Protein ImuA
Amino acid sequence: MAQNALARERLFALRETIAKLEGKPAPALAAVEREALALGKTGQQDTKRDRRGCLPFGVTSLDEAMGGGLPLDAITEIRSALFRDAGAACGFALAAAALLQRVEEEAGDRSPMLWIGDAVSTIEAGLPYAVGLQDFGLQPGRFVHASPRKLDEALWLAETAVESGAFSVVILEIRGNPAHFGLTESRRLGLRAKAAGRPLFLLRQAGEEEASSAVFRLLAEPAPSGMRALPDGSRLAGSIGNPVFRLSLEKSRNPASLSLLLEWNPHERQFFPVGEPRHALTPDERSAYPGAQLSASFDGQDRPQKMGPFLAFERAS
């Protein structure tokens, strides 16, 4: 049974490669189109794809590097390198979803969004909070959360949700680089998103870079926020302003690397570029009680060495 599945997968990949070389549509995508044509939905879906296109961030450097903005008929991967950065990755994904909802509201579309949280990642990163979503610029009434027990169930739900076209965006949150989610599963999700004309955000918490069918891969990291702006244009001393993300474009069609700071304004539901923070403070900006500056330990315990190859001896008794 496993050999038959492997053979079918190799045949599927070979057909995809041949179709790409010949400039023809992918067999799986063509099959979806034929099915939609039989149901009388092809024209409607084509119009929807042409209308959606991409979602610009409103930041010139980022939009130019991404060819106009975030693709709305493909997979976009948002990655955090460490679990302590999970809040930044989740925040950026939600901010992009809120930006998309604002654009769709202006067009008269009030479709909900779906967040699929893998059970393992949910234990570490937590669950969405309705009040926090509202303060962040999202409408809790249009936010649907699902927590499947297994990764296979989460993948099936994501594929079905994207294919239905009922959600403005589907966010699939996974932890790390699971063995059951590889290039094959990613390709299947990408074809479904392309056929339905709907975006899928792959939120990878504490994961490494790996091959996938995502058009773009973004590394989201936390960045220091500025002070809160007052109506007269001044800044409130000692306050914390809007959230700021350090965004790095890791995978794109643009060979030049890009890393920048983005501020998310939840009231206007818009991104704004931010300059690099100043690390050197003037005397009047320094804390009155900065604390003692301790020197580094010179005889402390060294870091544990990486485990290399070892030999397991037989037990003596």
